[in-house]
Amino acid sequence: MNHPVELGKDGGGSAVDTGQASGPAAEEARHRAETARAALTALRGEVAKTVVGQDSVVTGLVIALLCRGHVLLEGVPGTAKTLLIKTLSRALDLDFKRVQFTPDLMPGDVTGSLVYDNRTSEFEYREGPVFTNLLLADEINRTPPKTQASLLEAMEERQVSVEGDARPLPDPFMVCATQNPIEYEGTYPLPEAQLDRFLVKLTVPVPSRDEEIAMLQRHAGGFDPRDLSAVRPVAGPEELAAGRAAVRAVHLDPKVAAYVVDLCRATRQSPSLQLGVSPRGATALLATSRAWAWLSGRDYVTPDDVKALARPTLRHRVQLRPEAELEGATADGVLEGILAHVPAPR
Ligand SMILES: Nc1ncnc2c1ncn2[C@@H]1O[C@H](COP(=O)(O)OP(=O)(O)OP(=O)(O)O)[C@@H](O)[C@H]1O
Ligand SMILES: [Mg+2]
Known about the structure:
This protein has about 350 residues and is α/β, with parallel strands linked by helices. The protein has 2 domains: about 20-250, 3-Layer(aba) Sandwich (Rossmann fold), CATH 3.40.50; about 250-345, Helicase, Ruva Protein, domain 3 (Orthogonal Bundle). Helices cover about 45% and strands about 15% of the residues. The protein is built from 13 helices and 11 strands. The protein has helices at about 25-45, 55-65, 80-90, 105-110, 145-155, 190-195, 210-220, 235-250, 255-270, 280-295, 305-315, 320-325, 330-340, and strands spanning about 70-75, 95-100, 110-115, 120-125, 135-140, 160, 165-170, 175-180, 200-205, 275, 320. The protein has a 5-stranded parallel β-sheet with strand order 2-5-8-1-9. Bound molecules: adenosine-5'-triphosphate and magnesium ion. Magnesium ion binds near residues 81, 82 and 138.
């Protein structure tokens, strides 16, 4: 992904105490947070048992889980998107489901539907695949808007309403929606307002030469991507909850908040963009930066955290002007220019 600060590599910082609360309760919370961080860091190694490379994608997914966000995954076919999400759910001891979004998929195929039971002569609700922890929504742009909307509503509300009854979705609940960057023909691109609901857009790159060779060697050594039994649950909902609590305590300097806002405002003024980042996007960037700060072992956010997360958090929230697009501009390129020009606090 080529971030200024590479995601997936160690943030480098060590835990620094800056005027934290004291006492046995605070001490225990701190201990829980440390254990959670160690477990979530170990996830990377566990996922690496099946997937070669893709470190930034794994880190992006963990950040999204910590922020209770949803993820857009973009990558050409065969780059281990499915393998990655499946392995992650196993390593986190979470339930996993996958839905292939096709042109004839109905909203009820995602959220569930009322089914008539002949024996009891009553309607019974049958849960759809959305009732899971990690939902892989494959090729979300192949399904018409009505079905997309049913998923997006469930994502936003974390519940499904059937005949006036609200049924809460499990917690954690995260949707990873894939989009194929090449095949846009005959598809229903998500409207801007819907894209804004995804916390991050992660690009899954084709592996490097060395990584691809390592992958082939694994396969030659008998690795079977359908058999994930070697993957152990190294963290789970408890660690995620402790992590979330710790992220909420990450200190934000007003100067860093102003930096986030300045970056977002710069997107609204960029001559290459017809749509800049919304205030929701600004809150998203702050959230992901804080989660990354905590994962990196700090209890305060730095401008470098913001820089590292700016592209994955903002790239799907801006829209290029057609002229700029014709000239070969990309959302990442424009964001890179903005990062280079907006002064960061010191
Ligand atoms: N980085 C990688 N590490 C290990 N195996 C890989 C990697 N990339 C691809 N593979 C291999 O390619 C196979 C295909 O991966 P997978 O089905 O997960 O891809 P995908 O991105 O979900 O594709 P699609 O878009 O077609 O659904 C994997 O089962 C694995 O054998
Ligand atoms: Mg797949």
